[in-house]
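User: I'm writing a short report section on ligand binding and want a predicted complex to refer to. Could you take this sequence and zinc ion and write out the structure as tokens? A short remark afterwards would be nice.
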Amino acid sequence: MKVLDAEFVQGFIRMANDGWEQGWHERNGGNLSYRVKAEEVELVDENFCPQEWQPIGTSVPNLAGEYFLVTGSGKYFRNVILAPQDNICLIELDEKGENYRIVWGLERGGRPTSELPSHLMNLEVKKLQDENYRVVYHAHTTNIIALTFVLPLEDAVFTRELWEMATECPVVFPQGVGVVPWMVPGGREIAVATSELMKKYDLAIWAHHGMFAAGYDFDLTFGLMHTAEKSAEILVKTLSMRPDKLQTITPENFRDLAKDFHVELPEAFLFEKGKGK
Ligand code: 13P
Ligand code: ZN
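Assistant: Sure. The structure tokens for the complex follow:
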């Protein structure tokens, strides 16, 4: 089967385009990765044309020998749907999880996203938690980024605020959301910090930059990013009208919700706040 005819490739392309249409991918902003299933590799491996091995820039031994579909560095999400073969690629990792090689895609040249260390370290942490995790998505979500200029950069503050602004949030991300302070993107250091947070959460905010989401499939991962960003948008709108809230969802309300929806909400996020906050 041709690579572009495979369902997982079509799902990847659709997700990239959905993100573009949301306005989260100016220029080459954002990147996407998918840990390909062994049976999916078999469907398309007749098309593989392996290039030279290159260092990943970090080590992911628990992903050794696996294949990943990733966006290219400097490539624009808006172009993925028009010419996927030039903007995304399939890579294979070596037996140590220290090097990768392109086996398909980026036909006009290029390399995988500069955030490959973050994607692979997050995918490794998630795989060790639960084999079903396959997608990691980085987007430049406007409203989340805006909030990182006005809210304290603390997991508890962001989790609680996002939960309060849309009732479904605690059900969609009951573990909460982590926050990475501003760091230089594209390297191992920010990848280590993000993957540490991914041990606890499916969502990590990069201050003044964007967000990372992890999930089982394209729908769940896109939906998670979309839900958190929409909640941030509601908070930005609310704060634009007045600095305090007249009423909100209370810690007791969250506890009631948790019971009926069968989710566990950590008490650390259900703290009492000052009046009007
Ligand atoms: P890439 O074009 O290398 O994927 O980088 C985009 C980005 O968002 C960096 O954080
Ligand atoms: Zn980015």
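A remark for your report: Strands lie at 31-35, 54-55, 67-71, 88-93, 99-105, 135-139, 178-180, 203-206, 210-215. The chain has two domains: 1-114, 115-277.
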